[in-house]
Amino acid sequence: xxxxxxxxxxxxxxxxxxxxxxxxxxxxxxxxxxxxxxxxxxxxxxxxxxxxxxxxxxxxxxxxxxxxxxxxxxxxxxxxxxxxxxxxxxxxxxxxxxxxxxxxxxxxxxxxxxxxxxxxxxxxxxxxxxxxxxxxxxxxxxxxxxxxxxxxxxxxxxxxxxxxxxxxxxxxxxxxxxxxxxxxxxxxxxxxxxxxxxxxxxxxxxxxxxxxxxxxxxxxxxxxxxxxxxxxxxxxxxxxxxxxxxxxxxxxxxxxxxxxxxxxxxxxxxxxxxxxxxxxxxxxxxxxxxxxxxxxxxxxxxxxxxxxxxxxxxxxxxxxxxxxxxxxxxxxxxxxxxxxxxxxxxxxxxxxxxxxxxxxxxxxxxxxxxxxxxxxxxxxxxxxxxxxxxxxxxxxxxxxxxxxxxxxxxxxxxxxxxxxxxxxxxxxxxxxxxxxxxxxxxxxxxxxxxxxxxxxxxxxxxxxxxxxxxxxxxxxxxxxxxxxxxxxxxxxxxxxxxxxxxxxxxxxxxxxxxxxxxxxxxxxx
Length: 525
Description:
Elements: H1 7-10, H2 23-32, E1 44-48, H3 54-62, E2 67-72, H4 75-88, E3 93-97, E4 110-115, H5 124-137, E5 138-149, H6 153-168, H7 174-189, H8 198-212, H9 215-222, H10 232-241, E6 244-249, H11 262-271, H12 276-287, E7 291-298, E8 316-318, E9 322-323, E10 336-339, E11 345-348, H13 351-363, E12 368-369, H14 370-385, H15 391-407, E13 412-414, H16 432-440, E14 444-445, E15 451-452, H17 456-463, H18 471-485, E16 490-491, E17 494-495, H19 499-519
Parallel strand pairs: 1-2, 1-4, 2-3, 4-5
Antiparallel strand pairs: 5-7, 6-7, 8-12, 8-13, 9-10, 10-11, 14-15, 16-17
Helix pairs in contact: 6-7, 7-8, 13-14, 14-15, 16-17, 17-19, 18-19
């Protein structure tokens, strides 16, 4: 049943959350394009290639009335995941050690099916099986998520992969294979001057990527026997052959031609005017795309491709964008800048849109429902500009603005509000999963399903947020944790050994640490 031993037993893949595959994200895109997706709060989710369940554990914890099943042919990773699930005490998740070829109709129907990092990395018969599962086991209005390597970008990366595999296969153990394969690329990239040499420039670009990639990723992505990219239009043809169709890309902004310069957008719209698959393929050519995370549904589902302001009125919205200026003018026509954490800035001139971003920035990482946002935007605009805004006019303008911002990647939306705090309570609480991950040095899953890292002091604080401690008790717990863990706290570059000095440092920093945890969506409301 479980098949042959897996290379993932020897080199486990880091198992963590992929927020782009969360049912919240899948349901939003399904709703946006005219589907009536199953409610996330009461759904069944299947993950194919779940590793040790890192992507499902946060979902299961935060959606207690939903059911989650993960399958993987790595016995070692499944055992690791089962041990953590037992410690978490969640009962709505099950991990199975088995070959995906053994998944049949008897598995039942699932509202959402997720397969991340599998499709391109298995033989053709198993790629066919994945699509068969999506047809057979997906609910009539369900959504499946499939990630895969794609051309044209992987034509370039494939050159480096071939080089790495040729050299790496001479060595027996995985760490040596990865190290030697990277060394060969470095040797070739530096063998000739890069000036006026596109090949060397290409290798240097890939070398920069390889230097940042984890060893487990390189082993399974560049050195495994199976890695079969394909063009998006070829993937769409395979979907059609299995009674499935393209729904959307998990990153909605990548589907929008208007995110290119006006001249390029005009040409793309002309080339793909009547065929969304054709449009997406042309955009892949322009981007030199290497990786896709595609959502699919049954081919008898009728989709709506012409989107309008009314299509976002059932959503809850959030945005990490902050106003660049401390005092924002809501007067029409006066430009104001809002900056995302990654440094991307947007200039907004409309009163309604500026007011929305001010309100969303105040409550991040919480969401605001559309109807509530309409009311609050109207009130804020009236308060700041002394002008009355009719509710219907605010609804129409806000719907159009939010759709544009969603297409630009400036906002996030869901079909429900999350129980995430945007302020710090007297007794702050984090989820049991996040506390366990923090105490064990693992990748951290926040309440938005994101995979994050914190510094050592942030981790120790997170591990102690059981909802029972106030700030004074947290400082005391941190002191004990620092002593137990052997962590060295420094001030002005010097290690702090005096207990009173350490206490003063922690008392002075605890509020900022907690505010940081709140901004990163680790605190429960």
